[in-house]
């Protein structure tokens, strides 16, 4: 890859990854409830899901999944349902799925990893993004495998940096000793954001 093409890919991917979404909200809540270090498991889970999608896209399988209406719809509606469940819990439950206070019994790293992985893997936008973005930056006259490895490693690093930041952001908010009404407002805002993400995900089609 030329340095110019790599720089464009780097900036594009960083903007997409750092933009707050369902995964960012989830890992921030993990950091708030379990501490930033433990929430790294959730960040790794999100990154792992993106690695799977990246590999699928790089091998052309993503195009087949998108072409299959049934497979795409299953992935899409599982993600929509999960986001709605998280959003409603965060919005209406006193504790909620999105918690800004410490849990008395913190979640296991396996559970945090699984939650991060499921939230990201059930998001068809990630599948669409990788299948659409990769061909734009591949030079057919250069070693393709090396280019894919470079972009894959870059995406993984950006994912880990981004969601680690969100994990410690949630931890930082908790350590700040927020008042109860602020905590409630944050929970409701997070719940509304998750419900909006579910609405946007429901509107995604394989042709976009």
Question: Could you state the order of secondary-structure elements as H and E?
Answer: HHHHHHHHH
Global outline: globular
Count of distinct strands: 0
Q: What's the number of helices?
A: 9
Uncertain runs: none
The largest sheet, given as strand count, sense and whether it forms a barrel, is: none
Quaternary form: single chain
How many domain units? 1
The CA-CA distance between the termini, in Å, is 27 Å
Notes on the structure:
The protein has 208 residues and is an all-alpha fold. The chain has one domain (23-202). It is 79% helix and 0% strand. The chain contains 9 helices and no strands. The protein has helices at residues 3-18, 22-34, 36-58, 61-67, 69-92, 109-121, 124-137, 144-175, 180-202. Helix 1 (3-18) runs parallel beside helix 8 and helix 3 (36-58) packs across helix 7 (124-137). The longest helix has 32 residues, at 144-175. The mean pLDDT is 77.
Please render the helix and strand layout as text:
Layout: H1 3-18, H2 22-34, H3 36-58, H4 61-67, H5 69-92, H6 109-121, H7 124-137, H8 144-175, H9 180-202
Helix pairs in contact: 1-8, 2-3, 2-6, 2-8, 3-6, 3-7, 3-8, 5-6, 5-9
